[in-house]
């Protein structure tokens, strides 16, 4: 039986051209009627597509029309049905972020890669870290800190010298960005079930912003982060090129 495919593309010309060619060749159905959604673009567009379609129990298969393409497969038109039929599925849970801004408003957001806190002024941030209601670090002086999922551990987390986490591991990474005090603190691994809370100390003098997959909240007072196991993102990869293989390969290059 022929797969029903919904093709979506980023705004870049190469992605739009690819979408037109693929729709002309394989047809197009609405996303809520599709067996699979094919996303054409880069990692940013892939994340956007996964967030936007999270209420659909439909796997997403990305083809790279961007730059890095860590979450994407190589682009090819001719053998797409065969690749989709043979694709391997990875299931990942996003992070849930809850934060209070300085005006008293409460914000919520989901992040597939990471939730990060970054200083928003000239002075370093001062953060207090609590895990499951228990104080773990009284004061972290830094440019920022983040909590990363295994899927996001090779993104901003890795650039900040955080660990790469195997896909399927039941841990999250807490990583400091340019830590000043404690100077040698290199972060921590916590259970996937943990609730991580950052409290911003001296928020007027040292403002901090929070980000969940490019959803920004300015001047936060505190941020709570946990794994949202009620949401499961289904991602398809060509055999032998799934996230587990990519994570391993990233560590030996």
Give the helix/strand layout:
Elements: E1 5-9, H1 13-26, E2 36-41, H2 43-52, E3 60-64, H3 80-86, E4 88-92, E5 95-101, E6 106-111, E7 114-119, E8 125-131, E9 134-142, E10 144-148, H4 156-159, E11 171-177, E12 188-191, E13 196-201, E14 208-212, E15 215-217, E16 220-227, E17 233-237, H5 243-250
Parallel strand pairs: 1-2, 2-3, 3-17
Antiparallel strand pairs: 4-17, 5-6, 5-16, 7-10, 7-14, 8-9, 8-13, 10-11, 11-12, 13-16, 14-15
Pfam families: NAD_kinase (PF01513), NAD_kinase_C (PF20143)
Protein name: NAD kinase
Subcellular location: Cytoplasm
Q: Per DSSP, what share of the residues sits in E-state strands of 2 or more residues?
A: 35-45%
* Distance from first to last alpha carbon: 41 Å
Query: What ranges have pLDDT less than 50 throughout 5 or more consecutive residues?
Result: none
| Largest sheet report | 6 strands, antiparallel
CATH architecture of the largest domain: Sandwich
How many domains make up the 3D coordinates? Answer: 2
Note the main attributes of this structure.
6-stranded antiparallel sheet; 2 domains; Rossmann fold; alpha+beta; NAD binding; kinase; 39% strand
How would you portray this structure in words?
Keywords: ATP-binding, Cytoplasm, Kinase, NAD, NADP, Nucleotide-binding, Transferase. By secondary structure, the chain is of the alpha+beta class. The chain folds into 2 domains: 5-92 and 232-250, Rossmann fold, CATH 3.40.50.10330; 95-227, Tumour Suppressor Smad4. Helix content is 17%, strand content 39%. The chain has helices spanning 13-26, 43-52, 80-86, 156-159, 243-250; strands at residues 5-9, 36-41, 60-64, 88-92, 95-101, 106-111, 114-119, 125-131, 134-142, 144-148, 171-177, 188-191, 196-201, 208-212, 215-217, 220-227, 233-237. The strands form 3 sheets. It has a 6-stranded antiparallel β-sheet, with no helix packed on it. The radius of gyration is 20 Å and the shape is elongated. The termini are far apart. The mean pLDDT is 92.
